[in-house]
Amino acid sequence: MHIHIPDGVLPIWLWIAGYVLALALVALAVRRVRGQERKGVLAAVMVAVMLVVQSIPLGVPYHINLSALTGIILGPWWALISILVTNAAQASFGHGGVTIVGLNTLVVWTEALIGYYLFAALRRRLKSSRLRISTAAGTSTLIALVFSAFLVVGIVGISAIDPSEALGEHAGELLGVATPAQISLTIFATLVLPIAIGGALIEAVITALLVAYVLQVKASLILGRE
Amino acid sequence: MHRASVGTKIASTAVALGTIIFSTTIVTLVGQFLIILLFQFASRLPVKRLLIWAVYPAFFAVIFAISQAQYSAELSAQTMLRAVDAALLMLLLIGTTPFTRIIAVFGKASRTLSNLAFFSYRFFFLFTDESSRRLTALRVRGGFEGAIRTKIKNAANLIGLLFVSYMESGEKVYDAVKTRGYRGEFSTEAALLGELTRYDFAPVLFACVTVALFLVGSLCV
């Protein structure tokens, strides 16, 4: 699930930590993918696909991301780089705060990561049949998205921690975060989780059907390796 | 704003964004909203359309505004205004600067990231055109008529078809650029902070006005 948190809601230390961690991981990913030019173009296709599908209205305040599918197709490192570029492009159009790009990248990457590893594990167990592989893709997507929905709630929960209680009276002031974010976690979770879980179900079904179709016409996209 | 250097515009946007994030009064945020609109108007951007785009982040900010309502109604209003101000600010930057030039500036940090962004930018427009063409074709052939199961199946097949077609387009583009000598890097000549010209006055003025407004707002609290 993508965090649509506007700028200025989360405390500075949290979004800076998000940026630092995300950029450190991206730096590592850039080193790991060196020399894979063809896959880089495939990653660019996935960025464009993610941006295009997010503009498809579903009639609910949710849009599909295809982040788990991105993980399945690109693997964890290219998926991370693609997700950062997607989030930065979206933030430049006001879709999610600019300060939240780092945290968003980490959250969406979790979906790609879970999608990738879970799909690989399920595929090994389920052997190869079109129905089973597409079901594995759908299941991996569902689990990845539900996990990330709770992760988002967890991040908002962390933002509500009083730094002076957690780190000592002066530590909070030193970090420039003397007050916690004033967000009711109960109300936030009540509003967000039903939408996110319902959206995850829709995305899981779409991913499964999409994988079934792709397996029919170009299976190497899902099963092939570079 | 259009003719100002990319570096000046990015710097002034960063300053203005900082003032939006740290503003704690509704008056300041409303003032910043009006200033951004004024600069959009002066830059001859389609203000009405940009305001419609800003509704999207405002819609998602509602969830946070509701979650904050128990603390104070003012806090909720600030969250909504911050979301809209920040979105309009980014649209001012994007509306006055070609996206490729912004990518080129950030490409100084990582070639891999900028290459990916360049390719994605190209693909996005290709794919958007193709999607709308095929969607219209499916609609006129009655693809969204009938039982819900048929509709979902047709929609998934459409997405699958587009997906495969996008992948093939991507491979064709890669083969084309490789034939022309692409070895994993695009060379770009983007000066982050070139020589300042008189056109840079507008973004500098914009940053100064937002900072002044922020300081006045902070002193009045």
Explain what this protein looks like in three dimensions.
The complex is a heterodimer of chains A (226) and B (221). Chain A has 226 residues and is mostly helical. Chain A has one domain: Arp2/3 complex 21 kDa subunit ARPC3, CATH 1.10.1760. Chain A is built from ten helices and no strands. The longest helix of chain A has 34 residues. Chain A starts with 11 loop residues before the first helix and ends with a helix. In chain A, 54% of the residues are buried. Chain B has two domains: 123 residues, no CATH class; 71 residues, no CATH class. The mean pLDDT of chain B is 83. Chain B is mainly alpha-helical and 221 residues long. Chain B is built from eight helices and no strands. Helices cover 77% and strands 0% of the residues of chain B. Classes of the chains: A mainly alpha (226), B mainly alpha (221). The interface between A and B is large, with 61 and 72 residues.
Features:
heterodimer, A: 226 residues, mainly alpha, Arp2/3 complex 21 kDa subunit ARPC3, 10 helices, globular, B: 221 residues, 2 domains, flat
Number of domains of chain B: 2
The two chains with the largest interface, and their residue counts, are: A-B, 61 and 72 residues
Main sheet characteristics of chain B:
none
Q: pLDDT below 50 for ≥5 consecutive residues: which ranges of chain B?
A: none
Overall pLDDT level of chain A: 82
The overall average pLDDT of chain B, rounded, is 83
SSE pattern of chain A: HHHHHHHHHH
Write the CATH architecture name of chain A.
Orthogonal Bundle
**How big a fraction of the residues of chain B is strand?**
under 5%
- Gyration radius from CA atoms of chain B, angstroms: 22 Å
Supply the number of helical segments of chain B.
8
DSSP, total strands of chain B: 0
CATH class wording of chain A: Mainly Alpha
Structural Rg of chain A: 18 Å
Structural class of chain A: mainly alpha
**What is the N-to-C succession of helices and strands of chain B?**
HHHHHHHH
In DSSP terms, counting alpha (H) and pi (I) runs of 4 or more, how many helices of chain A? 10
Oligomer state of the chains in this structure: heterodimer
